[in-house]
Amino acid sequence: MSTNHQVLLEVDGLRKYFPIQKGFLRRTVAHIKAVDNVSLQIQRGEVLGVVGESGCGKTTLGRCLVRVYEPTGGQAILHTDSQDLTLDDLNGEQMRLFRRSVQMIFQDPFASLNPRMNVLETVGEPLRVNGIAKGRELEERVSQVIQQVGLRVEHLRRYPHSFSGGQRQRIGIARALVVHPKLVIADEPVSALDVSIQAQILNLLKDLQERQELTYLFVSHNMAVIRYISDRIAVMYAGKLVELGPKQTLLRHPKHPYTELLLAAVPRTIDRQQRIITAGEPPDLARLPSGCVFRTRCKYAQARCAEEEPQLQELESGHFVSCHFAADLSLGGVVPRVQSFAA
Amino acid sequence: MQTTHTLLVDVQDLKVQFSLHEGTVHALQGVSFQIQQGKTLGVIGESGSGKSVTAQALLGLIPSPPGKVVGGRVLLNLPTTPTSTRVVNLTELKPNGAELRSIRGKEISMIFQEPMTSFSPVHTLGDQIMEAVRIHYPEVSKEEARQRAIEMMRRVGIPRPEERIDAYPFQFSGGMRQRAMIAMALVCNPRLVIADEPTTALDVTIEAQILDLLRDLQSEFGMSIMYISHDLTVVGSVADEVMVMYLGLVMEHAATDELFTHPLHPYTEALWRSIPTIDGDLDRLTPIRGALPSPFAVHPGCPFFSRCEKRIVGVCDTARPPMVEARPQHWVRCFLYTEQGNPPQ
């Protein structure tokens, strides 16, 4: 299967449905299709940004890929140096290898650190649990990694309460990187931070990625952050992958009407008072419209959109769109500003 | 009288402290600004900048203790007849007195960040919107208050308001709840609406809808808006003028276009270089070095001194920089634009 060694992770038709249970017998009456038939590939050493609004399934996708959630269906294969790991079919040894290879960085550095564990214990825990290192060796590896993320050795014995939000996020990053993962899933890692701290963490993530040849799946609702960090961008809407392409292409020449809407909604630094029409709200995931999930908000929708669900198709090389009329529509993207604020 | 005709709010040297176990937080260290009738003032700041405390002070909502207004005035111009106005100093009013209560919610209302936690979950939205009307206009009948609430809900874009008025907050989506909050804030036709991060909890397409709605409502009702946010680009899209706050001080204040094209304060410049934008051309962000100082620290000089790229040791750390008009109608609190920062050659 692993013909292309450039591909680190192959996701094929991944689904995660959450049951809605009602009544005394907790009968399942319907499903929330949080992630529905998502297929994509993550190349070695790239940053794939996943963007979308709340409820689009971007977080669930990330969680399925670290096996926090058991997917309902579909497949994901991680190509490690030694073997291919199929996510739903791992024996004990493979599971340990998988846990080491895929790590996660969480959104809220105030909630994701145990207040009763100091930095050494927090960052060292993955090494201990996975049986990678202990004792002095563990402490050495932890010291090394916390310096890489911009903390100091004297921080090792301190507890989370004595750190600022930015420093806490550095601890979270250190914990993810200490086992030398191949793939890092970062779920809104800068959303809880002050604006002046966001840049520090974004640059740190960027530097670490380049220096250690890491691969990121970077999940965010913030298109500007996604633009800064990603090589390719995947846009999700109501559990579906609606567009996937190289960053510049997708931003300048989006092919899916939802991507156009999402880009138009981001406030600009020039033409600041531009008016856009963004009618409607995302659909109820338990009662999705027939056909295309976006048609209820789409200004280009036609009769066919209600009857037939569009499939993800490769419109140009590497640019995937799930829209019946992707080839015919001429959509507006982002025109970058030339003026710079650099003094 | 002519010059003050459109002036609505005049905040002069406002100082607020919080006395806590760990020490005293000087939340506002002398904040001055004005808001004109029908205009939007944007307030940008990070956590601890004092932007929300400023809003609380305008509403007389500083929690006391531990908070206390220790200096300055908040003057509100209330037209009594078409030709005369009454000036009220909000800091002198009793926090829960009748006069402040008659202003809060009627003349000045507020849109909060989290529409889920700022509504009562056990009352219908209609009851909560009608309550605002019934408190400030006791002569209005219940039926008329209901009609006003329905009308306002329709105006803010809630579909089928005559049915939705009897719904509870949990039955609304986040965007619709925020519309209901705006309806509640506007139902008494206030002169000033304070919006504290009103779109931060919302998705970006819903945020764009709410920003559009606020602009529309302002041109229809003519109220002033004080729009508080940490997000420069959002503030830039709604505000006529912007002030940038840092650790309880206004660092820079100018018309929005002026501030976006000619940021003068090193903090504002640094902010610009540190935020990712959708249409900027920066290849690499430049983080602001260091971290926010402890809120308990007392700074004899400029509060931004420890993180400033352009600081002048011996000047900036010894005295608080004055607010100077460095360009026409463009005020900045920085020694770089004074004689101390530019000694004669």
Gist of the model:
Chain A has 343 residues and is of the alpha/beta class. Chain A is built from ten helices and twelve strands. Chain A has an eight-stranded mixed sheet, with helices on both faces. Chain A has a four-stranded antiparallel sheet with strand order 2-1-4-5.
Written account of the structure:
The complex is a heterodimer of chains A (343) and B (345). Chain A has a domain at 42-68 and 185-196 and 204-343: Rossmann fold (3-Layer(aba) Sandwich). Helices cover 29% and strands 24% of the residues of chain A. Chain A is built from 10 helices and 12 strands. An 8-stranded mixed beta sheet of chain A has the order 6-7-8-3-9-10-12-11, with helices on both faces. A 4-stranded antiparallel beta sheet of chain A has the order 2-1-4-5. In chain B, helix 4 packs across helix 5. Chain B is globular, with a radius of gyration of 21 Å. Chain B has a single domain (7-107, 190-337), classed as 3-Layer(aba) Sandwich (Rossmann fold), CATH 3.40.50.300. In chain B, the strands form 2 sheets. Chain B has an 8-stranded mixed beta sheet with strand order 6-7-8-3-9-10-12-11, with helices on both faces. A 4-stranded antiparallel beta sheet of chain B has the order 2-1-4-5, with helices on one face. Chain B contains 11 helices and 12 strands. With 345 residues, chain B is of the alpha/beta class. At the A-B interface, helix 6, helix 7 and helix 9 of A face helix 7, helix 8, helix 9 and helix 11 of B.
